[in-house]
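Example 3.
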Amino acid sequence: MRTLKELRSHSSSQLETSSWVFLTPLILVLFFATAFPFAYSTYMSFFNWNWGNRFSFIGLQNYSDVLANQEFWASLFRTVGFTLLAVTFETIIGFGLALVVDRAGRQAGWMRSVLIAPLMVSGIAVSLTWKIILDPTIGILPRLLGHIGIHHLNLLGDPKISLLSVAGLDTWWQTGFVFIILCAGLQALPRDPFEAAQIDGATAWKSFRYLTFPLMMPLILVVAGIRTIDCLKLFALVFGATGGGPGQTTESVQLLAYRTGFKASQMSLSMTMMVIYVLFTVAGVVAVVSLSRRRRNRA
Amino acid sequence: MLRRTGALGRAITVAVAIFVTVAPFYWIFVLSTQDPASSFGEPRFFYHPIFSAFKTVWLDRDFIAATRMSVITGLLTVLISLAVSIPAAYILVKRKVKRRSGILSWLFIAYLFPDFIIALPLYSVLQNMGLYDTSLGLALAYQGFMAPLAMWLLMAFFTAIPDELGQAAKIDGCSEWATLRRIYLPLVRPGVATVAILVAINVWNEVTIALALTSSNPTLPIVVSSYKGYAALRWDQLSAAVLLSVIPVLIFSTLAQKQIVKGLTEGIFN
C-alpha cells in the first residue's frame, strides 16, 4: 500500500506533465511563427542568398554591408522620427478627447463609437482614402484650401513634409486606441480624492494637475508604449499612401526590407536588416523597462 | 460664466474631432458614387448618386476571390489561435507552471517582432511545405502576433474567474480537461468571443504578411491596393473598392462594440 505522501508526489508529478499537454500546442505554434523564423533569418544572415538554389557562407559581410548602408540608417532615423511624432500626437489628442468625452454624460456612448471607427479600418484603406483626399489634382482638401488662398499644398508629395503627413495619417487612424483606453482609465479612477479636493475648494485645473494627471500617468505611459512598438513596424500606411516617396523620404525600415528582399531579390541582406532591427528594438525596450523599474524602486 | 465657456469649448472639441473622423468616409462615398470625370470639377456635396462603380468592383473576379480568401483566413486564424491559447491561458492562470515567466516574455518579444522577420523566412518555408499562397499558411504565420494577443486577453479573463469553482470541481473528481471544459469555458465564453472578434478584425485588415506570403490568392487589402494602379482614371472604382472592404468591418465592429472595447481595455489593465 502506498503512503499518502507517495500518492501526493505521484499526483503532483502527474499534474506537472499534464501542464505541458496544455501548453504544447501554443509552444509549437509560437515556435513555428516566431522562434524558428528568427533563427532561420539569423542563420541566413551569414550567407549570400539571392533567391536561387545556391548560396555560400560569407561570414559577417551582410552585417558590415547593412551597418555601412546609408539607406538603412536613414530609414531607421525616419522610422524613429515618425514614431516620435505619431505617438506624441496620438497621446496628447487621445488624452484630451478622453477628458472631454468623459464629461459628456449620456452622450459619451455614441461619441466613443464614432471616434474609434478609424481603428477598425485597414492601413491600406486609410492610406488610399487619404491619398485620394490629399491628391494635388483631384483631392478635396487642396481644392478647398485653394479657396482660402493656400495653393499647391501637396502634403504627401512634398519631401519636406511628407513624413509629418504620414504621422498625421497614423494619428487619424490610431488616436482612437489611446482615446478608448484612457476613457476606461478615467472611469476607473477612485472617486474619493476628487470629492475631498472639491470640499477643500480645489479648482478644476488643480484637481486635474494634482489628481487626474498623476493618477492617469502609468496608463498613459503603457498606451504610449504600445503605440511606440506598433509605430516602429510602420509599413501599410507608407506602402499604400506614398510607396516610400517622394524620393525615399517616407521609406520605413520595413519598407526598405521589403524592397531589398522582394524587389531587389537580396533575401539574406533583407533578413540581416530585420535581425539588426529586432536586436535594436528589443535592446531599446529592455533598456526602457529596466530604467523605469529602477526609477520606481528608488521612488 | 467660466463653466459655460468650458462646456462650449468641450462641445466644439468633440464636434471637430467627429467631423475629422467622419468626413473622409463621407468623401470616399461621394467619389465612389460620382462619374469620375466630375471629380475634377468643383466638389459637389449634394447630387444624384450612381452606384455603377460598386457593381463593377463587386463583379470583379479578383475582388470576390480575395473576399473569400480573407474570410477563410480569418476563420482559420481565429480557430487556431483559440485552440492553442485557451488551454495554455487556463493552465498558466490556474496552476503554478514552471517556466511561466519564460513563456510570458516569449509572448512579449513576439509582439515586438517586425512583420518581415516572420514573413521573409516563412516565404521559403511555406513554399517547401506547399502552404505558400494558401489561407492555412497565412493563418499559421499570423499566430506570431495573434497567439500573444489571444493569450493576454484570455489570461485576463481566466484570472477574473474565482479559483474555488475549479477546486470544487476537482474535489468532485473532474479531470483538468473536464474542469476547463465544463466549469471555466462556459464562464469565459464572453472572453472567447472578444478574442475571436479582435483576431478576426486584425486579420481582415492585415497587409504586410499577406503581401509577402500570397501571390495569386491575395487577401482583400492587397487587392484593394492594386486598384491604386488605375487610380489616375477610375477614382470612383478605387473609392468603391476601399468602401467595400471597409463597410463589413465597420458594421461588424459596431455590432460587437462592447466586446471590442472590453477586449482592448481588459488586456492592458491586467
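The longest helix of chain B spans residues 61-94. Chain B has a mean pLDDT of 87.
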